[in-house]
Recover the amino acids of this structure.
C-alpha cells in the first residue's frame, strides 16, 4: 500500500534553505498520512466541535434570562471551578458560561489528540520499522516527520475553525467566537510541538506517549494551581508558565486577546524545529534517552506467569498509582479551599446551590467519581495487555510451554483487578486525608471502593470481547468506557434522564458521600461482570489464537 | 516394524479460516529419533499445521497426535516434552534476551544453566541487551537457545534459521545433529534445501494445504529422473529419436535431457553411438523434487512421480518459486 502511494514520488516544491532536499517527497507523505488517518482526524474534529452546540443549548436552557446568568456569576468562582476548568471571568454571559463548561475539556482533548496522532505516525512507525522502509525510497530525511506535524497541526486548525463557525452559528459574539476557536486550536498546536520532541527523546511509542501525557498533566496542574490562587478572576503570572494557561488567557468573550495564540503557534514551530534538529543528529530507531542494559537472567518470580504479567504492567501500574495519588491530594486540597469559601451565610450560595454541606458532598462525590474513572482506565489498559501479548505473537511461545490458557489469562486479570482496587482505595483515602477535615480518608476510600464493581464490569466486558471478538476487543471496550465516562460526567448536560444514567457502569454506583450507600446496584454490576468475564474466559479457552 | 508411537502423526488434517482453506487433507509423520523436513512455499500451511500440533489452533477435520496425545486436550502436559522455535520471534521489548530465554525455558519446566550458557556462547548472543534492540537474527537466536537448551523429546522448529547468517546456520546444523545423536525427534520446517538435505531423514512436501510428496529422502530421489548434460561430436538434435530421453534441449553439439532410473542403461547405450565428448549426470536434488510439484496445476490427488509434470515447466516454475522462498517468514 505504502509503496503504491510513494511510487508517485514528485519533486519537492517549497523546499528552501538548509532543509532543501531533506523535504523531498513531502506532499506524497502528506497524502499518505491523510490516507492512513483520515477517519481518526474526522472523528476527533467532529466530536470536539459538536460539543459546542450541545453544551450551548443546554446552558441556554439552564440560564434562560440575564438575571439567572447574573446570579450564577456571583457564585461561579469556586476553587473547584477555578482548579478544574479555569477562572470564570465572564460567567454573566452565555459565551462565558460556554467557556466555563467546555473550554478546558476541548483544549485538553485536542492536546491528547495531538500527542497520540504525532506518536502514531512518528515514533510508532519508526519502532515498527515502517519508517525505514519509507526512508529507503526517494524521500528526504524530514519529509515524513514534517508531513506528520503538518497533518496533525491541520487537525487543530480545522477543529478550531469548526468551533468558531458553530459558535457564530449559535449567535455568539463574532470576536469572541473566533478567539474561542483560536485559543483551543492554539493549545492543540502547542502539543504537536511538544509531542514532536517527545517522539525524538524516547525510542518507543509507549514512552513517547507517556512523556507527552506527563507534560500535559504537569501543564494542567501548573495552571490549576495558578487559577486556584488567583485574586478574583485576574490572570496570575504563574499561569503564563503553562501553554494551557496561554490559551485560557486569550479570554474569549471578554478581552479577546490574540497575541497568546502567536506564542502557542511559535511553541509548535519551535518544537517541530527542535525535533527535526534531533532527527538530523540521531540514528534511525534510536532515541536521545539512552537504552540501558539489563540482567542476563530472569528471577524465579519473573519467570512465573503472574510475575511476568506484573513486570509487563510495572510501568503502567506505577504511573497510574502515582497519578491517582497526585490527583487524590489535588482533589483534597481543592475541597479544603471549598470549605473556607462556602460560608453558610453567603445568601447567593444558599439560594442557588442549597446548603453548603450538600454542595461540598456533591463536589467530593465528583472527585471520587474521577478517581474511579482513573482506576477503570488503568484496569482496561492493563488487561488489554493480555490481548497485546496475543496480537504481537508473544503468547504463542508461552502457550507452547506447559502453561494453560486460564492460568495465563488469570495472571493478567489479577494484576488489573488488584491494581485497580489499590488505586481506588489510595486515591479515595488521599482525597479525604488531604481535605483538611472536609471528609475522612476512610469514608472517601470506602466511597471510592464502591466503584470497584463498575471497574470489574468493564474488565468483564473486555474479557467477553477478548473471547468472542479478539481483534476489536480493546477498541470496543474503550468506546464503552468513553461513553460511560461522558454519560457520568455530562449526562445532565446532555439532558439524559437520571434513570438512563443509572444504567451505565459509573452511573449505577451510588455517588457517595452525596448519596447513601446501597448494595443492590453493586451486586448487579458484580454479577454482570462475572457472567461476561466467565463467558469470555470459556470462549478464549476454546478459540484459535489470532495474531495481527 | 517397530511398534513405537510416532512423535507426530497427522492424518487428513483440515483447517479453514473463514472462507480461506488453509489445510485440505494434510498427512505428516515423524518417527521417534528421526529428523523430518517439512517443505512448502509461504502460505502452503506449514505454520498452520504446527500451530494445530501445539494446541494453539483447533482443527476442522482429520486427526493429529503429538507424542501419542491429543495436541488440543493434553496441551499443557505434552508441552513439557516438546520445544518450539517459531520462525518470526516476537519478544517483550523491555525485557532482555536472557530474561526471555529463562521465561520460555521455565514455562517448559526448568533451565539447564550450563547448557544455556554454552549455547549463548556458540550462538554469540549477548543476553543483557533489551529485546527491542535485537535484530531479527538475534531474536531468532533467543528462541533457538531457549528451545535447544531443553531436553525435550521432540523439537518443533518453524523456519528456525530465517535471519541467521551462514556461520550461525552451521552452528544450528551442528546442534540439530547433536539432538539427533541423542535419539530425539525433530520436525524442521524450512525453506533451505541444503539444510534439509543435510539434516533430514524424511521429507514431506506440501502444497496448498495438502501433502504432495513424502518419504525417505533417498527413496524419493529414486523415483525421479536424473538430469544428463552432454557434449557430442555432432549436432545434438539426433538425440530426439532415442527412446527414454525426456525434456531434450539441444543447442548445437550441446544437449541436456532427463532420464528415468530404469531407462538410464538403455539410453547410455544408445547415446554412446553419437560420439559423446563429455557427459555430466546429476541426480535429482531436493530442490528439483520440490520445484517439480510447483510447475503447474495441482495434479489429481497425489503426485505421480516420474511422469506427468514435465521438466520444462518445472524449470519455469523455478523462477516463480525462488523469490517466494527468499521472501522470508509467513
Amino acid at each position: 500500500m505504502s509503496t503504491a502511494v510513494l511510487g508517485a514520488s514528485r519533486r519537492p516544491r517549497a523546499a528552501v534553505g538548509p532543509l532543501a532536499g531533506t523535504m523531498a517527497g513531502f506532499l506524497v507523505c502528506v497524502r499518505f498520512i491523510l490516507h492512513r488517518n483520515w477517519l481518526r482526524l474526522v472523528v476527533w474534529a467532529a466530536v470536539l466541535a459538536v460539543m459546542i452546540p450541545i453544551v450551548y443549548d443546554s446552558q441556554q436552557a439552564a440560564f434562560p434570562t440575564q438575571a439567572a446568568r447574573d446570579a450564577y456569576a456571583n457564585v461561579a468562582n469556586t476553587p473547584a471551578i477555578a482548579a478544574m476548568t479555569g477562572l470564570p471571568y465572564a460567567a454573566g454571559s452565555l459565551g462565558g458560561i460556554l467557556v466555563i463548561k467546555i473550554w478546558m475539556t476541548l483544549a485538553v482533548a485536542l492536546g491528547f489528540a495531538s500527542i497520540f496522532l504525532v506518536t502514531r505516525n512518528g515514533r510508532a512507525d519508526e519502532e515498527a520499522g515502517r519508517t525505514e522502509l519509507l526512508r529507503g525510497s526517494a524521500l528526504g530525511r524530514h519529509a515524513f516527520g514534517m508531513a506528520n506535524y503538518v497533518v496533525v497541526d491541520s487537525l487543530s486548525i480545522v477543529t478550531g475553525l469548526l468551533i468558531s463557525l458553530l459558535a457564530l452559528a449559535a449567535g455568539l459574539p463574532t470576536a469572541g467566537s473566533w478567539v474561542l476557536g483560536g485559543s483551543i486550536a492554539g493549545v492543540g498546536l502547542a502539543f504537536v510541538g511538544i509531542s514532536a520532541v517527545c517522539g525524538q527523546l524516547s525510542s518507543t511509542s509507549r514512552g513517547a506517549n507517556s512523556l507527552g501525557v506527563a507534560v500535559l498533566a504537569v501543564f494542567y496542574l501548573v495552571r490549576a494551581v495558578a487559577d486556584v490562587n488567583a485574586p478574583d478572576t485576574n490572570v496570575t503570572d504563574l499561569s503564563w508558565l503553562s501553554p494551557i494557561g496561554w490559551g485560557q488567557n486569550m479570554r474569549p468573550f471578554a478581552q479577546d486577546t490574540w497575541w497568546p495564540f502567536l506564542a502557542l503557534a511559535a511553541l509548535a514551530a519551535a518544537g517541530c524545529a527542535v525535533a527535526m534538529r534531533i532527527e538530523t543528529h540521531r540514528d534511525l530507531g534510536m532515541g536521545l534517552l539512552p537504552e540501558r542494559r539489563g540482567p542476563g537472567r530472569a528471577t524465579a518470580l519473573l519467570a512465573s506467569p503472574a510475575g511476568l504479567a506484573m513486570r509487563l504492567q510495572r510501568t503502567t501500574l506505577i504511573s497510574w498509582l502515582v497519578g491517582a495519588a497526585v490527583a487524590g491530594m489535588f482533589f483534597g486540597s481543592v475541597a479544603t479551599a471549598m470549605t473556607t469559601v462556602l460560608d453558610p451565610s453567603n445568601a447567593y450560595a444558599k439560594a442557588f446551590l442549597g446548603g453548603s454541606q450538600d454542595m461540598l458532598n456533591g463536589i467530593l462525590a465528583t472527585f471520587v467519581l474521577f478517581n474511579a474513572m482513573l482506576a477503570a482506565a488503568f484496569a482496561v489498559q492493563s488487561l488489554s495487555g493480555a490481548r497485546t501479548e496475543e496480537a504481537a505473537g508473544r503468547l504463542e511461545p508461552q502457550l507452547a510451554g506447559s502453561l494453560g490458557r486460564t492460568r495465563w489469562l488469570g495472571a493478567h486479570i489479577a494484576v488489573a483487578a488488584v491494581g485497580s482496587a489499590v488505586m481506588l482505595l489510595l486515591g479515595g483515602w488521599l482525597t479525604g486525608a488531604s481535605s483538611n477535615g472536609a471528609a475522612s480518608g476512610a469514608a472517601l476510600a470506602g466511597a471510592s471502593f464502591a466503584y470497584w464493581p463498575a471497574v470489574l464490569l468493564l474488565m468483564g466486558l473486555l474479557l467477553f470481547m477478548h473471547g468472542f471478538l479478539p481483534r476489536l476487543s480493546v477498541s470496543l471496550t474503550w468506546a464503552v468506557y468513553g461513553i460511560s465516562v461522558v454519560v457520568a460526567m455530562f449526562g445532565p448536560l446532555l439532558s439524559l434522564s437520571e434513570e438512563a444514567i443509572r444504567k451505565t457502569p459509573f452511573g449505577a454506583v451510588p455517588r457517595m458521600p452525596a448519596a447513601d450507600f446501597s448494595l443492590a446496584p453493586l451486586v448487579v454490576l458484580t454479577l454482570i461482570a462475572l457472567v461476561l468475564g466467565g463467558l469470555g474466559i470459556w470462549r478464549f479457552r476454546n478459540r484459535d489464537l489470532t495474531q495481527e | 516394524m517397530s511398534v513405537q508411537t510416532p512423535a507426530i502423526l497427522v492424518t487428513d488434517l483440515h483447517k479453514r479460516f473463514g472462507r480461506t482453506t488453509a489445510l485440505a487433507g494434510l498427512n505428516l509423520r515423524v518417527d521417534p529419533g528421526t529428523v523430518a523436513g517439512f517443505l512448502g512455499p509461504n502460505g502452503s500451511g506449514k505454520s498452520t499445521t504446527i500451530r494445530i500440533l501445539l494446541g494453539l489452533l483447533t482443527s476442522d477435520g482429520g486427526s493429529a497426535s503429538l507424542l501419542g496425545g491429543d495436541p488440543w486436550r493434553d496441551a499443557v502436559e505434552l508441552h513439557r516434552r516438546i520445544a518450539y522455535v517459531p520462525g518470526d520471534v516476537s519478544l517483550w521489548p523491555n525485557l532482555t534476551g536472557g530474561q526471555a530465554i529463562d521465561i520460555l525455558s521455565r514455562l517448559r519446566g526448568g533451565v539447564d544453566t550450563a547448557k544455556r550458557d554454552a549455547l549463548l556462547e556458540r550462538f554469540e548472543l549477548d543476553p543483557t541487551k533489551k529485546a527491542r534492540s535485537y535484530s531479527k537474527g538475534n531474536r531468532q537466536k533467543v528462541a533457538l537457545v531457549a528451545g535447544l537448551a531443553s531436553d525435550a523429546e521432540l523439537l518443533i522448529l518453524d523456519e528456525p534459521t530465517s535471519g541467521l547468517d551462514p556461520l550461525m546456520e552451521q552452528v544450528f546444523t551442528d546442534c540439530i545433529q547433536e539432538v539427533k545423536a541423542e535419539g530425539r525427534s525433530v520436525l524442521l520446517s524450512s525453506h533451505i534445501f541444503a539444510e534439509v538435505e543435510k539434516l533430514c531423514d524424511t521429507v514431506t512436501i506440501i502444497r496448498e494445504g495438502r501433502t504432495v510428496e513424502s518419504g525417505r529422502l533417498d527413496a524419493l530421489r529414486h523415483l525421479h529422473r536424473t538430469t544428463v548434460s552432454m557434449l557430442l561430436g555432432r549436432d545434438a538434435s539426433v538425440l530426439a529419436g532415442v527412446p527414454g530421453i525426456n525434456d531434450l534441449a539441444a543447442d548445437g553439439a550441446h544437449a541436456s535431457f532427463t532420464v528415468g532410473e530404469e531407462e538410464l542403461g538403455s539410453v547410455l547405450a544408445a547415446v554412446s553411438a553419437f560420439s559423446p565428448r563429455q557427459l555430466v549426470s546429476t541426480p535429482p536434488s531436493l530442490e528439483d523434487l520440490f520445484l517439480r510439484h510447483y510447475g503447474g496445476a495441482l495434479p489429481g490427488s497425489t503426485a505421480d512421480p516420474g511422469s506427468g509434470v514435465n521438466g520444462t515447466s518445472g524449470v519455469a516454475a523455478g523462477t516463480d518459486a525462488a523469490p517466494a522462498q527468499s521472501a522470508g517468514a509467513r
Q: What stands out?
A: The mean pLDDT of chain B is 84. Chain B has two domains: 8-220, 225-282.
